[in-house]
Design a protein that fits this description.
The protein is an alpha+beta fold. The protein has one domain. The chain is built from 2 helices and 7 strands, in the order ββαβββββα. The chain has helices at residues 36-40, 123-140; strands at residues 16-26, 28-29, 49-52, 55-71, 79-90, 95-101, 112-122. A hairpin with a 7-residue loop joins strand 4 (55-71) and strand 5 (79-90).
Length: 142
């Protein structure tokens, strides 16, 4: 994977804790919302608007891009791009990792997938959850 080292996530002592949730489901890009300039260079055109589970999302900014590569499946020794990844921020302040599969799945479905989403948890809520876990752990100790 040709991915630069990610920036460290904030610690719990900082203002917000980041909670990442795995999704692993297809998304539906809206027609006419693709970035044509990327497509002209052979990359997939990132959809600027897409839906997932009936909810509509708009891309505010691309935070990071990278590719997954893999060996040829027929033994030629060549390497091919398997997935194009994008870490994005949406207009409703969610951070998401989405990817495009270069080769469609045998089961069909969208080649665009939502891998995970992150949303900040207010510091007070994170501290209360930590305190509740410590209290619960202490109560179980004989």
């Amino acid at each position: 994977m040709n991915r630069p080292n990610p920036k460290p996530l904030p610690t719990e002592s900082e203002s917000d804790e980041i909670r990442e949730t795995f999704v692993g489901e297809g998304i539906t890009p809206e027609d006419q919302s693709f970035t044509a300039s990327a497509m002209a260079t052979g990359k997939p055109g990132l959809p600027r608007t897409f839906s997932w589970k009936g909810r509509r999302f708009c891309v505010l900014e691309v935070l990071e891009e990278w590719k997954d590569t893999g060996d040829c499946r027929h033994g030629s020794g060549e390497r091919y791009v398997r997935k194009h990844w994008f870490r994005i921020r949406t207009t409703d302040a969610l951070e998401m990792k989405i990817y495009f599969e270069r080769q469609g799945r045998s089961s069909g479905g969208s080649r665009w997938r939502l891998y995970s989403m992150q949303s900040p948890v207010p510091a007070g809520a994170a501290s209360r959850a930590s305190a509740a876990r410590r209290k619960s752990d202490a109560a179980e100790t004989p």
